[in-house]
Structures are given as structure tokens and as C-alpha cells.
Amino acid sequence: MLLEILTPEKKIFEGEVSIATFPGADGSFQVLDHHAPLISLLTEGDVVYKGAEANGTVRITGGVVEVLKNKVVLLADGVVA
């Protein structure tokens, strides 16, 4: 699935991943390939993603994530360096 991590200032990451973990408002959750459509609020925490070519962790200050048609778009309020 395609994962995009965006802030108001810039694009943090874009690439194919097989799994992503998000800090949801009600606890962390994972999204896998072909996940059902979803929109969720996120709190401060780590976004962890893994794929054949990309593995990483991004600490966000909050935001919103949308999952639709095997594309995941994370609109983060900001990232912690």
C-alpha cells in the first residue's frame, strides 16, 4: 500500500509499505495491505512503517489518518525531530 506522511510544511515520507502502526486517540492500531476504509484522529506518538524497501519511525504531535483504496494518507500536525 502507498503511505504518505504530510505536515503543513512538507512531505515527510512517501513509499510502498506492507504495515503501518499509528497512535490512535483510543490506542495504537495497525493498517495492513487492502485495509477497509478508515478515518481516525491521532495523538502524539510514533508512526512505525515497514515495507520491502522502507522501514522507519516518525514521531508526530497529532493528526488525522485516512485509509482508502490501499492508500494511506497521514496529515500530521507536526513532527518531533
Kindly state the percentage of residues in helix. Answer: under 10%
Largest sheet: 5 strands, mixed
Q: Which CATH first-tier class would you pick?
A: Mainly Beta
Q: Decide which structural class fits the backbone.
A: mainly beta
From the spread of the alpha carbons, the general shape counts as: globular
CATH superfamily membership, which one? F0F1 ATP synthase delta/epsilon subunit, N-terminal
The number of distinct structural domains comes to 1
What's the total count of β strands?
Answer: 10
Q: Give me the CATH fold name.
A: ATP Synthase, domain 1
- The low-confidence parts are none
The helix/strand series, from N terminus to C terminus, equals EEEEEEEEEE
How many angstroms separate the termini? 26 Å
How many individual helices? Answer: 0
Strand neighbour order, sheet with most strands: 2-1-9-8-5
Task: State which percent range the strand residues make up.
Answer: over 45%
Examine the secondary-structure arrangement and name the CATH architecture. Sandwich
Taking all Cα atoms into account, the compactness measure Rg is: 11 Å
Mean pLDDT: 96
